[in-house]
Amino acid sequence: MSVAWNLAGIAVLLPTLPLTIELPVLSVAAAFPPRNPRPRNPRRRSSSALRLAVVVPAHNEETLIGTCVRSLLSDRETAVEIFVVAHNCTDRTGELAAGAGARVLPLSGPGGKGLALDHGFRHALSLGAEAVLVIDADSVVSQNLLAEVAASIRAGAEAVQTRYQAANAEGNLRTSLAALALAGMNVVRPRGRSRLGLSCGIFGNGFALSARTLQRVPYTANSLVEDLEYHLRLVEAGIEVEFLDHATVFGEMPEKSAAAATQRARWEGGRQRMRRAWALPLLKAVLQGRGRMLEPLLDLLAQPLATQALLLALAAVLPIFWCRIYAGIGFAGVALYLSVAAGLSPNPAGALRALAAAPGYLLWKLLMIPRTRMAARKNAAWVRTERNPGRKDETKPGE
């Protein structure tokens, strides 16, 4: 019987090992002040202004697109051209984007966000852009974001990722908990990687690429998690993404359960597909001596935090001493991670209060398993997350 219980313990805990290793290491690294940027390529240094283009992928975003464009244009000291890719839009997205000051690029046909980004990138580069910045249509940016991105690319960075935080963290308990999760994924982890000299990752919103990077690694990623897919291609090509910790893009978190379920299924199902496609190549690279591929491999194999907690809780009740010890270590890592995430969020006290919703969230995640599996299928289609109700853009053409 003891052999059977030990095998059961190994089966439960083996999937938790990558995150059990990653969380405490990245959390401790993130708790320290950011390190100085790595040495730049002197050939890329220039005192002239950078030709920066902003690409905004949009599908039926009439309620938010005007606010997004005006946010980008509020920094009058950094000249940019904004391209809104109106992908299969049937509403006033293009009209309102043009009225707010953007150039609209209509796009029709099947495909997800990756296809829209590639279309926008190609158009921007054909007009002489030296770098492109991606901002989602439901987002606004901090006043310094454009200047920080332009300065980093001008100084030699090949790819950068800004902070990506929730714009509506105080909307309800769901968005507060989502904001804490976002602070962990998009602040703690990239900040920790940056401190350790690793590529920080790409999160689909608030990232920028130099023209040279796009020439080396074209943006052909079109999976449900095209940002993760493209980052793995960058790492494979030896290109590191730098983290801009003092520039922030704020995106809306879904307030309704159905919209949150759509987003979560797409994210987690897409990661499962990437895991199947990339785990063995990354492991092979590590075994061949490419040590910098270990962290991307651990990140890819890591379970969602809620799944991690459920598996650790299951291990804690197994009648095996070593399982309980391991579960205690794992929970300590989760607690450290959440504490650092709360400390780096705009409202630490509110972030910690949101943990009161964690039990309900864990139950919701269990009910989400069938949808996540469907999203992990090879032929799963990209589905836009429904926007929060009650928003209306009053921008008029030419205003």
What's a quick, concise take on this entry?
By secondary structure, the chain is α/β, with parallel strands linked by helices.
Could you characterize what this model shows?
The protein is α/β, with parallel strands linked by helices. It has one domain: Spore Coat Polysaccharide Biosynthesis Protein SpsA, Chain A (Alpha-Beta Complex), CATH 3.90.550.10. The protein is built from 16 helices and 8 strands. It has helices at residues 2-13, 17-31, 65-73, 93-100, 113-126, 145-155, 173-195, 211-216, 226-236, 257-287, 294-301, 305-316, 321-343, 348-353, 358-367, 369-375, and strands spanning 52-58, 80-87, 103-107, 131-134, 139-141, 159-166, 207-210, 242-251. Strands 3-2-1-4-7-6-8-5 form an 8-stranded mixed β-sheet, with helices on both faces. Helix 10 (257-287) runs antiparallel to helix 11. It is globular and about 70 Å long. 49% of the residues are buried.
Keywords:
399 residues, alpha/beta, eight-stranded mixed β-sheet, globular
Q: Total strand count, please? A: 8
Strand count, sense and barrel status of the largest sheet are: 8 strands, mixed
**Apparent shape:** globular
> At the third CATH level, what is the topology name?
Spore Coat Polysaccharide Biosynthesis Protein SpsA, Chain A
**Structural classification:** alpha/beta
CATH superfamily: Spore Coat Polysaccharide Biosynthesis Protein SpsA, Chain A
Listing every helix as H and every strand as E from the N terminus to the C terminus, the arrangement reads HHEHEHEHEEHEHEHHEHHHHHHH
The number of helical runs is 16
